Fold each of these.
Amino acid sequence: MSKTNRTESGVATIEFALTSLLWVPLLLGTLVYGAELIRAMQAVQVARDVSNLYAGGMTFSTSPNLPNDATNRALIARLGKELNLQTSGGSGLIILTTIKFISQRECDTLTSSGVTCTNLAKWVVAQRSTIGDTSLMTSSRFTTDPMPAADFDDGGNVVSATITNAGVTYTYPVYLTDNALKLKSTFNLLTIATDGSGYPLVDANKLPVGYGAGTSAYLVEASFRSTPFPPFRNNAGIYVVTLF
Amino acid sequence: MSEMQANSPRREQQAGVALILLTLMLMSVLLPMVALAIDLTMLYVVKSKLQGAVDGAVLAAGRSISGAVSLSAQATRMNTVAHQFLNANLPLNYWGVTSAPTIAEGTCANINNNLSAGNGGCILWQPPDSREIFVTVTASVTVPLLFARTIKDASGHFSTTSAVGAAGQAARRWVRLVLVLDRSNSMNLPCSPTCPIDALKDAVSNSDPRYGFVVNFDESRDQMGLVIFGGSALVAYPPRNYNLPDSGTGPDQHFKTGTPNIVDQVGSYLAAGSATGMAEALILAYKELTKTPQPLYYNVIVLFTDGMPSSFTASYNGNPAVSLYPGDTASTGSANVVKNAGCANWNTPLNPIIGWMTQTASFGNVNNAIGIFPLMKNSPYPPGSVPLASPTPTQLATDVNGWLSNPDRDYLDSYGHYWPVQTNSQGCQFRADPTWTSLSNADLSSFPTEDLYGNKTNTIDYRNSLLYHNANVNLNMNSVNNAYQIGLASWNTTFNAGKRIRGDTNLLPTIYCIGYHGKEDVDKALLKRLANTNKDFADWAHDAYGQYLSSDYDPNSTTGMYYDAGPGSIGYAFQQVQSELLRLSH
């Protein structure tokens, strides 16, 4: 009796231990993976909402003289509350960038000015705002940060420069000429068709083929911190990019 | 012992049963549940991403709307743009997605756009009797399944993929717009690479949608009007009875093909000359918007100028005593400022003395001759008020095309003689001699406190002007013969006109401004204030043309935009305005 009991004792524990090798990782993995999926969905949702507002004309600068912007920033923080997005600090960062493609049509504004249109056929930054913890991403994936502060006004818009040549005054946005404002070659989300002379390619109706050069597009990058849980989750965080 | 022997086989048989049962349960219940949860969540993540991509596609396609060609031609482009943005937002391999999203074309029959499916025919549409145009994108993408492929679907088949769909829609309000164009004398020079007036005419009236402004708006949807200004201003389109300034319907839908139309008025007749009466032009434009008001439209004024305000139109003897500003009951009009000594019979009978006053010394802080000049013959406030000259100045412009073609005719006759407001029978001259070389302040005691439309001349707003920045001399309402002072008073009327127009909470007019840097300085800060832009704030360090700080922006008023234009870029500036106007309002 005692021998048999000794033989059987611990079998359930061993079986539990053996089976747990299978289901504990499965359970933990499911929990971690599920939580990460939920955060990914939340991040996508936040990026989408922010993009909608940004493309609709809402601005998010830190200028103390633009009271609506502070309200708008607070609105974004509320949208990302579940991800601990705050107007500054917190666990998330939103980088908002208005971009333009510079064709020869835009560069024509510098004709006879003596100024070289450095950024011809390049995507450039026209406006930039950030919301949240800027230490989370020290640089956008598509721009060379930090860009020169003198290139922006306190609303985050790229400023204009003025030059007088042969008695004629030319005023032009510095994104036509400043190399620091062009997007990196990693930005390959959108292609603008131009002809051999650098002008936007048009169809039989003289409409641009596809998205037009010189028209703004709105790039939103959302990044959120993740708690590491190796081996199921490393500390990569969540990154979402949208282009509206 | 026997019990033990008897029980032993059963116990041996039971050993490992839990493992088997658990394994079976894992295989049959737990794993499928986890698998389904993972697959469904994955589908949900992709759907969420696809929804964002559709939103981006809809807005981008909407920003590309042009009124220049048919809906079907535009729909083809919308389709291309929508695909570009769908692909940009939902890259291949996102959660295993191996093919680009497709746009559904199957619902065309239900949206009444008279287009056919294919090439985006269902993307762009317009319901009957609506004041909006819609962009609708319905897209789907195929997602490979990981675990759920082991489960039969409703039709009894195993499926390795599942389709995820999303739809988005945005609308653009139709535009009701008044173009306000400067044809002052400085628009004649310098002609490099093109004379500014010719570049302006081309930018507005070119029939190629890449270069022309008007052509990009659609007569079946949008409405447009035209105001031209020199020293005085005139509604050049749509045509109206100039003795009845409140007559007419305001901007209409025949601006491209009607007789007359804006393309012809600008392209064929417009010539440069005269001064810069910006306030009257803005108010006339606003008065046009208030005729048959359309709050559901996007009500817009687009102002182009190359200079600073140098003139304003007023009633000098207090008649009429009330403002001609639409719906304004607050204004009491300006009191009489005509000196009895110079105009002994100014009020016998009490005829209105109305005209525009200007200077000829480039805003210098010097006394120089000024004149008060009549508005177009037989026009406009009130009928018959001016000119009061004798003999009748028959050579002054008497119709719109004559006025547009002969800009100096608002103060010169065809022989080059000045025709100021003068009432010989009443003793008022309002200028000393035909050469403008001596003073005319003998007739006026001060500037009127309001222009003809109730815009104040005597506020301290002028301290934000480029003029004041350069000279730092305060406004003196009694210095009626001083060029600089006329500039300050004119600046005040213009600034206040913009402020009052944007204050209409029913129409919510938005002002867009284009400043051309040519022969004369343009006051960028004034134009930014008129537009009430929340962009392009300036500072003295890098901007010599005026100061507009973020604190000057009024968040409670409509927000417009300001655009710079230089030699060769007038057309591009108009293109930027057009792009901004035609983007979606959603």
Amino acid sequence: MRPLTPAKILSICAALAAVLFVEVVVSLQIGAYHMGARDIVVTLYQGALGHWDAMPGEFKSVIFGLRLPRIALGILVGAALSTAGAGFQALLRNPLADPYVLGVSSGAALGTIISLIVTPHAPGAMQGAAFVGAFATVAVVYFLGRRGGQLDSATLLLAGIVAASFLSAVIMFLMTTISGRDLRGMAFWLMGDLQSDPRIDLRWLYFLLIVAIGCIFTTSSDLNLMLTGEQEARHLGVNVNRVKLVVYICASLLTGLAVSVSGAIGYVGLLVPHVMRMLFGTDYRLLIPTSAIGGAIAIVLADTLARTVVAPSELPVGAMTALAGAPVFIYLMRRRMR
Amino acid sequence: MSTVAGNNPLSARATPPGAPDGLRLRVEQASYAYAATERSAPKFTLGPVSLEARERELVAILGPNASGKSTLLKLLAGLLKPLSGRVEVDGEEVSELELRTRAQRIALVAQESELLFPLRVWEYVLQGRYPYGKRLRFESEADCLLAGNALAQVGADELRDRWMDQLSGGEKQRVILARALAQQPSLLLLDEPTQHLDIGGKVELLRRLRKLADEHRYTVVVVTHELNLAAEFSDRIALMHKGKCLRMGTPAEVYERDVLQQVFEAPLEVEIRNSGRPRVMLGGNR
């Protein structure tokens, strides 16, 4: 027996964080203005220490003004979606659960669009509306996914698909009311886009991200038991209703956060937790933090590819994740059916 | 920090000094009804039922389908709160125990255990230590020792590194039982544990439960359809029929031909063997 220890969690997370750091440095190099890896590391170090005067002005504006905010947004979105996916998979007892597949992302997107139409300038309104949209969609899908008082995997997925297409139709309808100039940007955003909006205060979003991931992490030993079924978890002393409520609220909040700033990026929430399970096992105490960092790695990679494969033009990051994610989703689904 | 009970961590916790004669489980006129609606009467009502079980006793709950066996077991496990009467374990009302405390006293082996993602056997058995930990709980060496002992107790030591979804029905049943033992309960409840086992597996499981009760002081309550195995291995039998406990006593007291024929609606014959335990056979009128 080799039970999980905090030291093991920390060392694996540190290794993944190192991978993420290398990836960020590589991603920061890419663009019209060329910078060496050494320059980037030195500039990041100086920035971290607050030595703004010590760095060349163009380095400062290119890294901290242009490239890093986009990467920081990618890290936030990836961590949020992956953790939400891992949470939904345990909550709904369905390995194919993911904010995108369940229609939760569409719910959050609808909330965001409604807030853009109704209160375009209110601070935090987009995030709040996205959270409400995500929360309401999970509730509806959860309710529709039950058969005979029990959650049924197939019914749940069907409910998610139906919810997603219905909400997409409502989004399309609302978009016809938007002027042509904003429409292209909106369509791009809907497919998943990391063009950061200067009005967004990332510090607040990161604060909420860490709180929500932290709350889900505190339930991780309970989630381990819930994988064997709610009834069994209850026998073993888990306060199932409390755990479900915490994960439900936090996973909806994470989805809302991600969608409100980057649109509906698919499959990250599904694939990253599965890859982490394959690499590090199914223990949620390890899965939650590794999914968060792994999600960040996945989105930064997808965004870097999205910016380079058709340069100087660029693809929405959601298109990249869907290109990679859809075949893997089908593979996982078929493997489960066998 | 985990607690390791008593000198022998393999055994059930001792009955508290307040309880008379090692009395572990006391059910007093407990009844239950599944929610009635405004338009319809309750679909099923149980009881009132009374029964007692002491340490080292194996009690079998028998009866045809829909006779109330599982409902009674849920009352014993504290998953349902009785509408009237009391269910006490070690002198305390079960449904009022805090969740983790209850899981430290009572372990329930359910009919099915379907895992969402594959787990190793030792990871599964370590879950039985959950009620003793705090939030996030990282398993201590004592937990690993107890989980290992639980596996050894059910003869599944060699399975510890196998995947749960690669076990046979009998192996899986032993591992599920090991997780229940890792909880160090005083009361062990099993809901139709022989359901998916062949006859060899059924005999082995009942023999093992008998041994756990005899040697490790567990009180075992098992719901089963196996009339002969129950007669062979249990100390007492509760015979359920249409939501009522029709008979309660030793196998020889409960197994009367007319009673069994009435309850199971089958032509059953009863013979008393040399050991004093009854045996049930199919009668002539098939």
